Known about the structure:
By secondary structure, the chain is of the alpha+beta class. Helix content is 37%, strand content 19%.
Amino acid sequence: MSDTPAKYDPQAIEERWQRVWDSERTWEVPNPGEPGFDASKPKSYVLEMLPYPSGEPHVGHLKNYAIGDAIAHFRRRRGFHVIHPMGYDAFGLPAENNAIRTGEHPRDATYKSIESFRSQFKRWGISIDWSREVSSADPSYYRWTQWLFNRFFEKGLAYRSEAPVQWCPVDATVLANEQVIDGRCERCGSLVEQRKLEQWFFKITDYADRLLADFEILESWPEHVVTMQRNWIGRSEGAEVVFTCGEMGIDFPVFTTRPDTLFGATFFVLAPEHPDLERLAAGSENEEAVRTYVAEAARKSTEDRAAEDREKTGVSLGRTVTNPVNGEEIPMLVADYVLMDYGTGAIMAVPAHDQRDFDFAKAFDLSIRQVVAPADGVEIDSDVAFVSHSDDETLVNSGAFDGMTSPEAKSAIVTMLAEEGRGKPAINYRLRDWLLSRQRYWGCPIPVVHCDACGIVPVPDDQLPIELPEVTDYAPKGKSPLAAVDDWVNTTCPSCAGPARRETDTMDTFVDSSWYFIRYLDSHNDEAPWDREAADHWMAVDQYIGGVEHAILHLMYARFFVKALADMGLIGVQEPFANLFTQGMITRNGAKMSKTKGNTVSPSEYVERYGADTLRTFICFTGPPARGGDWTDEGVEGVFRFLSRLWRLGREVAEGRDGAGDGDPEPLVRKAHWAIDKVTRDITTDFALHTAIAAVMELVNDAYRLKDELYGSPEGDAAVRFAAATAASLIFPFAPHLGSELYEAIEGTRVWEEPWPEADPAMLTSGTISLVVQVNGKRRDQIEVAADTPEDELKRLARESDAVARHLDGAEIVKEIVVPGRLVNLVVR
Ligand SMILES: [Zn+2]
Ligand SMILES: [Zn+2]
């Protein structure tokens, strides 16, 4: 170390250690059966959600991977065999939209961006096993996405069907329900339209109950994520009740959670998208009015239509259905407040007990009949619907069911309907099947052909991958750009060898990211998507880390995939992610970062100025990682100063200093043990990385305060050395380069090869303290006691002090005030 730099130079330090890790492949781990595999160690799969490569990585990426890397380092040194891989969610619309604008092939833009992401991650010193890297847009990856699609198809879990779909007019593609936010396209914000199209679906609804039940396995998942998924699945118990239009001979099953209110159903409403609407309207006097209304409704957003307070519109169909409980003929209408994607797209309207039905009845002068009454007999207000629902309310105006409580009536009415074949108990889900086809270019081709003779035929596994053909025009025209590539589209049927056409839709990119975490485990396998032994060893992911914006889509789809794969015998776990951590967003000077506001931060610029260690430590330090954090330049500067101080301390210790040597080494040694204990507990219990870093800061402050009086004696030198080495060791998960540099300089070994330090329990109490004893607030004595002496014992010692006894002089003690660690005040009279 002759060429020791005089000042903290992160660029030099970081480059040096990155070269070591790269050339020694430090973070690579073998699979079972491979050389170097250590079966004696427990495994830990630490995974951050894979990035979508677009441009350069941003601050959100820095936070995600800095947190994940801290956990990976911590677990390695705690004796785990840690797998920590990386890959790219490389298909998707932004690259394709860029291609439409610039003509640049989405592949070129994407791989340029991957290059930038990879080099930034290396520059940040993230401890990744690069040997396992994957990209979902690579044929060696999507071959297996297609292979998995075939398995889902064989099991009837992938199917094609005509369905009303949400269509984004700007992106010219269908959207999954999950990609429609408040009636608008999640990507471009345009108002979404309804269309009817043949589409591919995954049958996720078959798994609704298991997706709900298995939250039990996921005990440590954040409560809010579980709640969001529960609401999305939206399970409700009730009954399916059949209303019949006798005139047309059509049955209309409806789902209701309130079969106890069936006698109050005074009209019947269909959604404008209801498939029977056209038939019902044809030939009726309102035929034209219905058509006009349906066309208008198609232009409105779902959010608008579902709003409670908006003016109700609708058209009478001029037909009736029979209410199965009382044989009453009630009018049918079409109204856009009824949505096709809940239940069956038809409702029995109970205006007395549903506010929207009530408003509609008032607007159209339809009858309103109260059928449940509050238990206390209070008259209900006839200006609003009576919707407060309780188990002790009783039925009125309901024939033989009058006087029953609501729960009794629910089951009695459903039993009666079931006997007549007019109804049955039913469970309804808000969850819909996963619409996976997209009319876009830059995605994984769906591996089927359409044959006039055989219908839909999957491409045999040994002919995969079906590679994306080259196109020159990426612009969406309502059909996939693939449809224009004639020599690709026209093929032969694998089944009858006759002419056939390839499917031209591509897959939703959420398909790619529903299984990437298994591919990492065996990423070069070209015989199978993964080796079962490797998957069984590493799965499930022990710690998954990512943004809360993926709480529903990605996490639910991946859970569904893993359950389906388990059912096919391809994997041995039911849940992909045993533990989940969702990090909060980083703001800048209190404001949300956005490109339009021009207040984004480019991590690479800051890394050049301060080094990666400062940035990584700062981003983990600014606020609890689960919540947000605020990016300020002062904050970054402050962390840089702290690391500089730590660097100087480490250099001093490594080189040796002279001093008075008359200080007591024990407080500093105790402080170091306190820091070990605190950092360990903070990281293990609740990802409190910010307070863990604060503890290292405290240790470094104490070392600075005490070192000059400690240097010069063997015990004093050892204490400062221990404090500095401990600080280097504890900061390593956050600032791995600096941690490695200082630890090697002080201890001569590589910190990542050292076990995580353990606090000595005996050093966690703070020894003895001087206890001041007062009588009526006046200092009368000072006694040495053990720091952890209980309060009662402190009072006793205070009372029994000779100096105090003299001042008590037989007076009665009326109060004893204890300030722990400092004093006891005896109040006498
Ligand atoms: Zn859009
Ligand atoms: Zn055929």
